Amino acid sequence: MLEVRGLSIAFASPTGFTPVTREVSFSIAPGERLGVVGESGCGKSVTGLSILGLLPRRHSRVTGEILFDGEDLNRMSPDQMRAVRGRKIGMIFQEPMTALDPVFTIGEQIGEAYRQHFPVSRAQARERVIEALARVGIPLPARRHDEYPHQLSGGMRQRVMIAMALICEPRLLIADEPTTALDVTVQAQITDLLLELSSTQGTALMFITHDLGVVAEVCTRMVTMYAGEVVEDAPTDEALLRPRHPYTSGLLRSLPRLAQRKANRCSRGLRRSAVCAARGLPRSSCRGRWHERADHAGAAGARSQDSLRHPRAGRHGQGRGWCEL
Amino acid sequence: MSFDVQAGETFGVIGESGSGKTTIGRALVSLLKPTAGTMLHDGQNLAALSANQLRKARRAYQIVFQDPSAALNPRQTILDSVCEPLEIQGGLSRIEREARAIEALGRVGIASEYARRYPHMLSGGQKQRVNIARVLTLRPRLIVCDEVVAALDVSIRGDVLNLFAELQRDFGLTYVFITHDLSVVAHVSDRVAVTYLGRFVELGPTEAINEAPLHPYTQALMSAEPVALPSHLRTTQRIVLEGEIPSPIDPPSGCRFRTRCRHAQAECASREPEWRELRPGHFVACHFAKS
User: Fold this and answer.
1) Is B165 in contact with A268 (Cβ distance < 8 A)?
2) d(Cα B23, Cα B198) in Å, to the nearest integer?
3) Closest CB to A188 among B184, B207, B238
4) Which of B271, B272, B245 is nearest to B260 (CA)?
5) Which domain holds residue A28?
6) Any chain B CB within 8 A of the CB of A250?
7) Number of domains in chain A
8) Per-block mean pLDDT, blocks of 10 residues, chain A (325 long)
9) Which end of chain B is less enclosed by CB atoms within 10 A, N or C?
């Protein structure tokens, strides 16, 4: 359904265009749930924004193809793009408080998204909005319709964002860190809701996050990005069990785990082994796959700490990862 | 709430936003005065001290905040920020202060060439290191860490947690680790307290809570934590809590968790559960918890 081919994004800077992502390629099938993971600054959000054409045109340069049902979104005029945005592809942003306008009621804001694409009266739109609010599990939807964002809790606001993104029943939903600002228990509610909606309505999901745990629970496939490039693309279970790229493995290792603590109990010094920095030289107690990467970077003729941040090392790694796949 | 923190241990406090965990942390370092009850640091009640005495005493009890950028003055160099606590303490010359600050920065892995830079020139992880260096200059005995890694990336998070473990080993520090992230708390803490709406619902050794949580809230919290494991390796059944944490201004009667609890019964609304020691060192506040 969505196919991204060789997507490169560059931002204008005083010294010309600075590349942000290079040759990003991936695809999403109808109804598929794809996780895009990586640290901040690796280009995952920018990739999401570029699909919807939300990057400022004057200050960014997007090259490559973004094929949605065979049409290249990257070549569309702003008018054509407006017909796609919200209608065919919905988006949820990380921070619901900044994404919602504080001076309009949530009903007005969701209704606006709907009326943009469907020629309906205000009264009809209101009905649709109340339905949508009920569907995302907001109690008393008719009352909530006329409330302002500040009257809702963080979890409720994120539900409003989901209702807004889904009201036109888009075929693809791009969710950019939708649960990062929420508590664990509320996060569980929201991920369950997204899972349920995506399976009942057949909406494909592009889930951008840095939380591998959430990806493991929500997504069927996982794309790992590093320094603006895709370094691994594999089914989630496969990627978690046998990460092919050292960076994915490093990310996995850097997670503090509940179960691992017991093993580290014997001495405090060993605690390091579980929490291992994905950046920098390998800790002496943390070898294996990550070490492989250090060797690898060493071959590139630089100290691994420096070269890891360098895009070339990532590209190098990508080639290798690809071969192994 | 009653609890004690032993010298050299890491005491974890977890809870959702609005559960009062940050308030505990602030009270521990006398940024807030307790409305009722007392808090003794080495047998000394900080709240009863005069302002002058308090200023001296609190040097041993420091806090590191959640947002590393907000905690640093953007118009001061890193070195000035790190020197400031020493300046307030007095008794050292400028050169001595700077030497000590640079030593502290080196200890947390910030090279001395960064010392003259301003906060905006550093990454989030580096800024958090600077904050840690700043509290280290006063040679504290207790450090309250309030969501210290919440604003950091996973990989850097690991780094900073490692640094904390290292400093604890080298300086014999005591930590109170406040976080909403279960995996972080379980990783660093010796004992964990679970807060809900301003009360402790469970307190016990990390392993005990990890393996067999007694309170239904802890159970739900643990099961809600997403684990990065392939589907066939995930065993725990998710307990999804309904709704959100009620307002602390008008908490539910009896057990505060009853509005979201799976096992709630009539008794829970009428009577507040006692704080019981079900296993040695493992406390819980629930009518129905069994060891």
Assistant:
1) yes
2) 9
3) B238
4) B245
5) 1-88+171-238
6) yes
7) 3
8) 92 87 91 88 88 89 92 91 91 85 94 92 94 88 92 87 90 89 82 88 90 88 89 88 78 64 34 33 32 39 32 35 35
9) C
